[in-house]
# Entry
Amino acid sequence: MTNIVVLDGHTLNPGDLSWDELTAMGSCQIYDRTPVDLVVSRASGAQIVLTNKTVLGRDALEKLPDLRYVGVLATGYDMVDIQAAQARGIPVTNVPSYGTRSVAQMTFALLLELTQHVGHHADTVRDGRWTTNPDFCYWDHPLIELDGRTMGLVGLGRIGQATGHLARAFGMRVLGYDPHVRTVEGIEWTELEPLLRSSDVVSLHCPLTESTQHLIDAGRLALMKSTAFLLNTSRGPLIDEAALAHTLDSGRLAGAALDVLAIEPPPADNPLLRARNCLITPHIAWATQAARQRLLDAAVANVRAFLHGRHENVVNP
# Structure
C-alpha cells in the first residue's frame, strides 16, 4: 500500500473540492497545515508527499528514507530543496499553467479597482451617502477610462500574454518586455526602461530569480509616469517594497495594486500596508474554484503517472 501525505491541503481545498481521486491511490493522510517542526514526523513512512507552501528542505528530506516522490501543489517549487531531492533520486513535480486565466482576470480586477474605485463607492452608498446626496451622482476619485492608454507587461509567458489579450479588449495599446520572448501577436516588444517610461499601467508577470529580485527598484520606479499604476500578481520580491512605499507616499506614482508581497503573510510593519493608494489582496489571484480544481486534477495526474512509472511535470529531471 502506497502511503501518501499532504502537508498543507487547506489552501488548495478548504472543503469545496474532493480528494477522492487521490485517496483512492493508497493510504492517504491530509493535513490542513503543517508547522515546520512537524514536517518530518508527519511525512515519516510516506513514499509520496504533496506540499503547497510547507518547506521541504535538505534536512527534512534526509530524514525521510522512504520518500520516493514530492508533488508541489503549485507552479513555483522553491519550497523544496531541488538539489537535495535530485541527489536522492526523488522526482519533484509541479503544476504549470493551471491559473493562467484566473490570474489575468485578477490583474484586471485590481486595475479596475484603481481606475473606478468600485469598492469605495459601493461602501459609501451602503453607508447612506447617496440617499442624502443633493445630486443624482457623485464620485470621490478621478474615474479613468482605459481605452487608448498603454499597458506595459513585464514577462510574456502564458499569464502575461493572457493579460495582454484582456488589455487589447479594453482598447489599450500593449507593450511587452521579456528577455526570452520577443514575438507575441498584438504586443509591441520593447526594452524594460522604455516600457516603464511609456506605460500608463505596468503589470509584472515574470518569475522570481536572482536577476529579477527587486527588478522594480527606486531607480526604475523613478522612470514611471507620476500618473501610472503598478500591478503585481506574480512574486512579491520583484519589487523593492520600501522604495515603492516611498514613491507612492511622495506622490510620484498614482497607485499600486499587489496580490503578492515579499513575506506572506506580511509583518505588521510592512510599509506598503499603510502606503498611499496601495491596494493589497492576500495572494488570491490563483484561487478561483475553477483554477484550484485544475490544479488538483493535474496534481493527481502527476501522482498517477509516477505510480505507473512515468514522470510528468518533473522540475528536476
Summary: Residues 100-280 form a domain with the Rossmann fold fold (CATH 3.40.50.720). The CA atoms of residues 218 and 244 lie 7 Å apart. The chain has a mean pLDDT of 97.
